[in-house]
Structure formats: structure tokens, C-alpha cells
Amino acid sequence: MNGYHKILLIGVLAACLVLPGCGQSGEAESFSYPMEERFQMLASLTSSDDIRKAETFASDLCVVMDGVPLADSSVGAKAAGLFSLEDHTVLLERNVFERLYPASTTKVMTALVAIRYGNLQEESNLKQKVTIGQESVITEAGASLAHINPGDVLTMEQLLYGLMLPSGNDAGAAIAVHISGSIEEFAKLMNQQAQEIGATGTHFVNPHGLHDEQHYTTAYDLYLIFQEALKEPLFRKLISSGSYTAEYTDAQGQPKSQTWNNSNQFLIGQQPMPSGLFPLGGKTGTTQAAGSCLIMASRDKEGREYISVVMKAENRQSLYQDMTNIIQNIVN
Prior knowledge:
Strand content: 15-25%
Low-confidence stretches: 1-34, 39-57
Shape: globular
Helix content: 25-40%
């Protein structure tokens, strides 16, 4: 049974079985994307082995059936969540099943797909050189860029840093075309990976998150995607880097150098973390339609890890205030 089938059983198992660490009190504030939609394939699963596998799968996830609603007026974002990776509890949640635009938090999935389908765990593949094509030309006003150009030659490692630190939409397009041959084919891999890890409220059409009405996810699905990405040591290395200098050649074979800085203000010290918490890294995202978004991982003094997500905050200042107010609950 693949991951897609497993996740469709999670809600039923949560209601019928006592799953470790997932018993919460209170009602979820919004079920715009109801859990029932995640059960549509349940009837096709009849094997008792499937049930046992699904129980094990669900025990490693925070299952939001009776989540703790986030009603605090100090958090103004449309959707938010706080999840413990230690005991798989849902500490806080608001509208976590509502489909929203993810902006550049999309790039978490882009990095995950690139690492896995490009077999970038292998050093030789990570150092593979990529000649940038016309797909890197992004003309949308305000789009974040790594400022790479057609004809530039970079390694896949450099492109991943260009994707995750300055949130380069051009780097995302270059990665997609290198891995799959086109943006459209790469998006298919993104959606396939989403289904396999149970992110069934998600649909991607591009690797960067520039606005499209058919490009959406949920706060809960972002948690699922981010948790999966954290299993890859390379992904952890990327998101924990404050800056990175790429040295490569342009179309004329001339040397070029760029230093990219991480856009996560918690990681680079522009936004203080609550006392007793330490940032592991994350991904920001902003478009007019998506608002300001951030998903990140934190660690407390005992080494316990947490994932927190904010979607559709009013602006960047509100985003970081919302996130601070959310993760403060870890140490309170």
C-alpha cells in the first residue's frame, strides 16, 4: 500500500484507535477541506495488513481530528499550525485544511522532489553541472530571483541554494527543467510526491509558487511536506544555512560569483526567537494572493523538534509576530 492509501485511513484510525500522542481536546475551527475527502479510497482497501501498515504510518504523524483550536486574537493569519515531531501532538491549529495559495513555500516540495528524483544524496549528482535555459527568465513584477541567466552553468547544489535562500524562482524553473525536461512534467512529480505522503489537499502547477488558481495547498499539507523534507539531511543543510556563495561561469565562460542570504529572519537573527527555542530553518513565501507565509522547524533546549506554519498573514511584520506568538506556546 502506498502513502496515498495510508493517509486516507488516518482519520478513521484516529477515530477508532488510540494513536500515540494524537489525542487532543476541542474542535477544529475550520474544515473547508473536510477529512472525509481523504477517505475516498477507503472502500478499496480491504486487507488487514493495510490497516496495520496505516496504523504505523499514522503513529508517526500529527492527526488533526480533535485539534486544539487557535482562537488567540494575537494571531491574525488565515491558517496556522504547531506540530510536535517528538510526540506527534497538534499543539495549535487554525483552518489547517483550508486550501490556500502557498507562494514560495512551494519550494519545499521542489527541493524534496529534486533531492529524491535527482538522487542528490549522491555527491556526484549534487555536483552535476546544469546549463541554464530560457526557463530561468522570470518577468513577473516583484518575483524573487537568484539572478541566474540563460547560458550560466551551475551545479545542482548551487541551484538548490539559489532556490531556498534567496527564494529564486529562476533557480526553481532551472531545477524543474533539468530534472523532468519541462515545468509541466516536474509539476506532475510534485503532485505525485504530495499524494504519496498524504498531502491530498494540494495541487501544484509550477516549482516556484508564482500565482496560479490551480496551485494551492493547506497548512496541514505543508506540515506533511515539510516533515517529509526534514528526513533528507541535504534539505536540513539547505534551510539551516544563513548564506551561501556560488561561484560559476556565465554563457561566455567567464567566472561569476553571487552570495545569497537566507530570507528567514529567525534564522539570520533579524527576528528574535522566544527564549529557550532555536531555529532549524524554514521557507518564506509572499504573493499578493497568498499573503505572507512561513513554515519552519524549531528546537527546544531538550532537543525536541517542532514544525510551525503560518499562511496568509497580512504582511511580513504580521507574519513574524504571528509566528512568534505561535511558537511561544512551545515553552509556555
